């Protein structure tokens, strides 16, 4: 009596075909670019928080300059560059500069608007506590 079963090669080929089809569907659906845009916004939000915390800890003013295609974190007293990041998937609609004081307050607090190929985002920086959230 013969028992029929799948060979290891057949299973590997089947899994390869399924993963290829899945990756094509993910790319065509636009899910990956949306995740990359969201990750870029979250990284900016984390860097704004870092700038605020660095100011609180060190006692120096730190500023973050946001342009249409990049942002830079600098120490406000001597303009020493801490970090510079270029956007790949989003674009800021306006130029903004926030200065975080050692007390935790923020100069120039406002809402930053971003756009991508098909979606709009905003990051809101509150003036008193420097709280940051995005929508």
TrEMBL record:
<dbReference type="InterPro" id="IPR012902">
    <property type="entry name" value="N_methyl_site"/>
</dbReference>
<dbReference type="Pfam" id="PF07963">
    <property type="entry name" value="N_methyl"/>
</dbReference>
<dbReference type="InterPro" id="IPR016785">
    <property type="entry name" value="ComGD"/>
</dbReference>
<keyword id="KW-0472">Membrane</keyword>
<dbReference type="InterPro" id="IPR045584">
    <property type="entry name" value="Pilin-like"/>
</dbReference>
<feature type="transmembrane region" description="Helical">
    <location>
        <begin position="6"/>
        <end position="27"/>
    </location>
</feature>
<protein>
    <submittedName>
        <fullName>Uncharacterized protein</fullName>
    </submittedName>
</protein>
<keyword id="KW-1133">Transmembrane helix</keyword>
<keyword id="KW-0812">Transmembrane</keyword>
<dbReference type="GO" id="GO:0030420">
    <property type="term" value="P:establishment of competence for transformation"/>
</dbReference>
């Amino acid at each position: 009596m013969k028992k029929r079963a799948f060979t290891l090669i057949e299973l590997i080929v089947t899994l390869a075909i399924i993963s290829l089809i899945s990756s094509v569907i993910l790319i065509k659906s636009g899910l990956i670019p949306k995740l990359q845009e969201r990750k870029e916004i979250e990284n900016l939000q984390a860097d704004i928080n870092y700038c605020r915390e660095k100011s609180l800890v060190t006692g120096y003013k730190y500023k973050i300059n946001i342009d249409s295609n990049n942002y830079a974190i600098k120490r406000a007293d001597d303009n020493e560059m801490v970090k510079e990041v270029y956007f790949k998937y989003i674009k800021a609609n306006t130029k903004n500069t926030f200065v975080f004081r050692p007390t935790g307050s923020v100069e120039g607090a406002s809402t930053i608007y971003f756009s991508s190929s098909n979606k709009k985002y905003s990051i809101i920086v509150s003036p008193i506590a420097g709280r940051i959230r995005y929508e």
